[in-house]
Amino acid sequence: AISACEKGGRWEEALQVFAGMSVGRVKLDTIVASALISACEKAGEWRNALQLAGFTAHSNVESNIITFNAVISACEKSNQWEKALQRFNVITGCDAKPDTTSFNAAISACGKGGERELALHLLHIMGENKVEVDTASFNSAISACEQTGDWKKALQLYSVMMQNNIESSAITVNAVISSCAKGVEWVSALRLFGGLAQ
User: Fold this and answer.
1) For residue range 108-139, what is the model confidence (pLDDT) as tens digits?
2) Cβ–Cβ contacts within 10 Å for residue 159, how many?
3) Which residues contact 36 (CB under 8 A, 6 or more apart)?
4) In contact, 184 and 150? CB cutoff 8 Å
5) Does position 6 have pLDDT exceeding 80, yes or no?
6) Per mean pLDDT, which of 3-12, 20-29, 139-148, 173-182 is the most reliable?
7) Which of 82, 152, 166, 179 is deepest in the core (most CB within 10 A)?
8) By CB neighbour count within 10 A (0-12 exposed, 13-18 middle, 19+ buried), where does 80 fall?
9) Which residues contact 185 (CB under 8 A, 6 or more apart)?
10) What's this model's pTM, rounded to 2 decimal places?
11) Residue 92 CA, distance from chain mean position
């Protein structure tokens, strides 16, 4: 029932089902905790996601990477970059290892918070740790550059994507062009746009 609520983004109903389970003495486990936190994440309920993560840890329920990622994503979606980064750092202190989803949510959170250097640092660490870097990873990092008008770094990241055969998307190109526009670098923006038209 909790998984159905989670898939439908009905976090309040998921919590009600869990409350009923608690009265019936059904124990909280990793699967239930992940579903509850994911339901909160989908609704942008970062405070509830953090509270559930804390309750899960206090109840000695093992968290898995899905649980961690849901909390990080809930914070990212609510523009809580510091909270997202704190949860990301908790992963490294546990048996779980950050995966592509963990890094992408943390990079995106930092970018939304105007923390371009942190976002770029996380992208760099991904490569060092041999975690798969994908289109979303670069999109988040390029968007962080866009936020600060760092068109040179945005173009550099786009070039790295192309060199490594990482597929770009409309989000990628829009962020690079927007970075160039914010940096009053119209020539590069037009060149990129012209290359797409061919």
Assistant:
1) 999 999 999 999 999 999 999 999 999 999 99
2) 11
3) 2, 6, 11, 14, 15, 18, 52
4) no
5) no
6) 139-148
7) 179
8) buried
9) 151
10) 0.81
11) 16
Q: Is the pLDDT of residue 178 over 90?
A: no
What span, in angstroms and rounded, lies between the C-alpha atoms of 94 and 107? 20
**CA nearest to 180, candidates 195, 164, 165:** 195
- In this prediction, residue 198 carries a pLDDT of 46
- Residues whose CB is less than 8 angstroms from the CB of residue 136 and which lie 6 or more positions away in sequence, other chains included: 100, 104, 108
**Buried-state track 13-37, b at ≥16 Cβ within 10 A, e below 16:** bbbebbeeeeeeeeebeeebbbbbb
In contact, 17 and 5? CB cutoff 8 Å: yes
Between CA 135 and CA 139 the distance in angstroms is 6
Alpha helices in 10-150 (DSSP H): 11-23, 30-42, 46-58, 65-77, 81-92, 100-112, 116-128, 135-148
Per residue in 51-107, pLDDT tens? 888 877 877 777 788 889 989 999 999 999 999 999 999 887 777 789 999 999 999
Residues in the chain: 198
* Contact status, residue 156 vs residue 123, Cβ threshold 8 Å: no
Alpha-carbon separation of residue 143 from 94, 122, 150, 172, 198 (angstroms): 30, 14, 10, 8, 24
